[in-house]
Write a structure and sequence with these properties.
The chain is an alpha/beta fold. It has helices at about 25-30, 60-65, 100-115, 145-160, 180-190, 205-210, 215-230, 245-260, 290-305, 325-330, 375-385, 400-415, 420-430, 430-435, 435-440, 445-450, 470-475, and strands spanning about 45-50, 70-80, 80, 95, 130-135, 160, 170-175, 195-200, 230-240, 265-270, 310-315, 315-320, 335, 340, 345-350, 355-360, 365-370, 395-400, 420, 450-455, 460. The chain folds into two domains: about 45-350, TIM Barrel (Alpha-Beta Barrel), CATH 3.20.20.70; about 400-485, Arc Repressor Mutant, subunit A. It is built from 17 helices and 21 strands. The strands form five sheets. Strands 2, 5, 6, 7, 8, 9, 10, 11, 12 and 15 form a ten-stranded mixed sheet that branches. Strands 1-18-17-16 form a four-stranded antiparallel sheet, with helices on one face. It has a three-stranded antiparallel sheet with strand order 19-21-20. Helix 3 crosses helix 11 (about 375-385) and helix 8 runs parallel beside helix 9 (about 290-305). About 40% of the residues are buried.
Length: about 500
């Protein structure tokens, strides 16, 4: 009998057998660049919204026509940092002026009001329902405590929020930039999840990337967060940084395991100084060799697996009882611009410079992005005050039913390591084997290498192939072209 949810996993909570010992030969064979698939089509397919009068209202129409019963996930981009991290690949604004956060907050509030007036509430309610909220950046805690309180209070005048024990309310934290009462303030407001950018605990590496903090500082933040009742704590690590060695990173991973975060994100450092100015501070000769990077990845994967963390996919690990791990085993995990999420039924509404929204209308999904330049973004918000036709988004993607089909395939492979042909046939009215015959043939080599298993029922990513899930998904990407390779990161 087929289960109710064909993507529910039989892996259970025993994580030690989820990933076999790291296989360097296989990783090297398939180590090619590819998207991280926080959307499909990816952000590389954005096109400018034309300035013609009849199209300037595009975002207005999208928000007005969204399904009011669909809950919302809100994302706020805070672009400011007080320190420049040399590994950074984002458009961040380095400043120590406290006035910057107050000015920016006013633009966020104006954008919230601008978009909220276009949103309908579900029947029986006066406000749209929010199930998830995330503050990212930059450094979101660049906002002063009282500014975060002000933002939170205004949001509650505009939206209805699930109780904190049902919703997912998170914020990224630089442990160096926490006020004495910031964690307590966040918890009092209803934030229930935090993410800490740690990257590495080795002092030599920290100095090389200009991000210095002690292990004791990180541990103190985690201990305080637990005492305050935060339900989930994530730590970010990076491998491939200057002066890192397999031994030094191994020491960092062991120390982090002792701190026992609920989730870990282990990212590959991609050195692209021609694209990212901050990275020009890093000398090529200080970077680890490809062989050492491979060893770092392998050791980290093996160590975290042995420590009981479940590999979720694309750099992410979680304890077996964490919501992400539970959702994956239940076949309810999703992926969007906020990464892996349990809130797959939400429309994503982004606020702030460079933020991205994903709004579904019938069989079409629109992906919208605000301007990536702070001053241009602010100028658009100013112009919108007297002219309601002007909206923050400047780029968009309109997905077709063909895109939605391939998105469904790619996301199920990345979230659940499985594609159920019967499920796809029922949802999209196709014969999946015939429709994807070319892709199935391309996967033949991976099947021969025992990375996947294919039969009449579907395609399953085997434990040996889970670290290469992106490679499997890329076969189904119609937009993937050689011209994009420079924009993607490799497995290692």
């Amino acid at each position: 009998m087929q289960p109710d949810n064909p993507y529910a996993s039989t892996r259970g909570s025993i994580t030690s057998k989820q990933l076999p010992p790291f296989d360097e030969t296989i990783i090297n064979k398939y180590n090619r660049s590819g998207p991280r698939y926080t959307s499909y089509p990816t952000a590389l397919e954005f096109t400018p919204i034309p300035d013609r009068l009849e199209t300037t209202a595009l975002e207005t129409k999208i928000l007005q026509n969204r399904e009011s019963r669909a809950p919302l996930s809100l994302y706020f981009h805070i672009p400011f940092c007080r320190h420049l991290c040399y590994y950074c690949a984002c458009n961040k604004i380095i400043t120590k002026k406290n006035s910057d956060s107050g000015d920016y907050l006013q633009y966020l509030i104006a954008e919230i009001a601008l978009k909220r007036r276009l949103l309908s509430a579900p029947d029986g309610s006066e406000k749209p329902l929010v199930k998830q909220l995330h503050l990212g950046g930059g450094t979101p805690t660049f906002l002063r405590d009282e500014e975060i309180v002000k933002l939170w209070a205004f949001l509650h005048t505009q939206f209805e929020f699930l109780p904190e024990d049902e919703g997912d309310y998170s914020i990224e934290i630089d442990p160096r930039e926490l006020g004495d009462n910031t964690l307590q303030t966040l918890r009092n407001l209803g934030f229930n999840r935090i993410s800490l950018g740690v990257q590495d605990l080795d002092e030599t590496v920290q100095i090389a990337v200009n991000r210095v903090h002690s292990a004791e500082m990180i541990e103190n933040v985690l201990n305080e967060a637990r005492k305050l009742g935060f339900g989930s704590i994530n730590i970010d690590l990076i491998y491939g940084l200057p002066h890192q060695t397999p031994d030094t990173l191994g020491n960092t991973v062991q120390r982090i395991i002792e701190m026992s975060p609920d989730r870990l994100s282990v990212f590959n450092y991609a050195h692209l100084p021609e694209r990212f100015k901050a990275q020009r501070q890093i000398k090529d000769e200080d970077l680890p060799t490809p062989a050492d990077k491979l060893a770092m990845l392998g050791n980290t994967v093996n160590t975290l697996t042995e420590a009981g963390y479940q590999y979720i996919g694309i750099d992410h690990f979680a304890k077996p009882d964490d919501e992400l791990a539970v959702a994956q085993r239940q076949g309810k995990l999703h992926r969007n611009f906020q990464g892996y999420t349990i809130m797959g039924d939400c429309d994503l509404l982004g606020f702030g410079v460079s933020s991205i929204s994903q709004i579904a209308n019938s069989n079409t999904r629109y992906i919208l992005q605000n301007d990536t330049d702070l001053h241009t973004y602010q100028a658009r918000i100013d112009k919108a005050k007297p002219n309601p036709l002007i909206m923050p988004a400047v780029k968009y993607i309109k997905t077709s039913i063909r895109d939605r089909l391939r998105e469904y395939v790619i996301m199920n492979l990345l979230c659940h390591d499985y594609l159920d042909f019967k499920d796809v046939n029922q949802k999209f009215g196709i014969d999946a084997i015939t429709y994807f015959i070319d892709e199935i043939q391309q996967l033949g080599t991976m099947q021969n290498n025992r990375l996947i298993d294919m039969d009449a029922a579907g395609i399953r990513v085997l434990p040996r192939g889970r670290l290469l899930g992106r490679n499997v998904a890329m076969v189904f990407d119609e937009y993937l072209k050689d011209k994009h390779n420079g924009h993607f990161s490799k497995v290692i």
